[in-house]
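Checklist before submission:
- one chain only
- standard amino acids only
- sequence pasted in full

Submission:
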Amino acid sequence: MNTNEWQTYLVTAASRSAGRTTPEVVAAAIDGGIDVVQLRDKKASARERYETGLQLRELTAEAGVPLIVNDRVDLAAAVDADGVHLGQSDLPASVARERLGASSVVGVSASRVGEAREAEAAGADYLGVGAVYGTASKDVPDERNGIGTDRIAAVTDVVGIPVIGIGGVDASNAGRVVDAGATGVAVLSAITAAEDPAEATTALGEVVADV
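Returned file contents:
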């Protein structure tokens, strides 16, 4: 799977979806041209995420859109996702690869150059780097929040795998992230909370493609 083609990346969050279900938001994002979807929804139970994951797998498979699961290697395997995205406190990328197989995608979050190098060396297929502009969607230590586009540039200078900028990104600032060297951007509220998620997805894609 070519992660170099991932320009727009949706991270789900039921609590920030304006009363809509996660499958409803994902279906709209697919209509708007999203490149990849990550099931996160950390506040949901494992059973709830599993059931949602099965629905998302059906939607994304029909559309030919990759489905990634946040943190949980077991859940990624259970819903037949295309891969997993790991944080710095999760299983190592090499272990996830061993559990999921060589063809699965393994992404890793990084906010420092050293972390990025280590993730690439461990076999990560792409990096989620941020929080670029700061985020309120999860608790992030101050030193990892609002790291700026200069850090995106610093990371892309030292790794050879795709970098996805995340954290406070929307259509108004996504261009600067890509201009700094990122392959694409990952968003949460910019799509999930939008009045029209499909339209918001299309707008984001147009901005990234124009850089």
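Reviewer check: The longest strand covers residues 105-110.
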